[in-house]
Amino acid sequence: MSVASASGPFAARADNLKPSRNLGLRLLPKVLTRRFAAEHANGVDAVIELRVNESRGGPEVRFTMRIKDNQLTVTRGGAPEAKAWLSGGLNDFVLIASGATPWTELLASHRLELGGDPFTALRVPVLLNF
Length: 130
Prior knowledge:
Elements: H1 3-11, H2 18-35, E1 46-52, E2 61-68, E3 71-76, E4 84-88, H3 90-98, H4 103-108, E5 112-116, H5 118-127
Parallel strand pairs: 1-4
Antiparallel strand pairs: 1-2, 2-3, 4-5
Helix pairs in contact: 1-3
């Protein structure tokens, strides 16, 4: 078990306090970029919005994920032109990214939501190695 997966449940509680939530939100684009599986992005040209739900630590925050030419860029801010979106708590994104909880489990329990174009939305977990 890696340190990341072992610390996932602990790190996931970071969303409850404003300072740790802010740190988590600053790190999220880097984590997503590192998890990106370029080998699965052949022919993908998409804009996807990532919505981090409001919590006790702060308001909803949105990110724009642009996939083009087998590269991912993640910037803070909404994406009105997005083909698809993912929505969940920062806690849940930490659990997914650390490998502590499968994204399918969070989707089944309605803690993670996918929307927009279903074909694009369902590719996101594969593209991010979730």
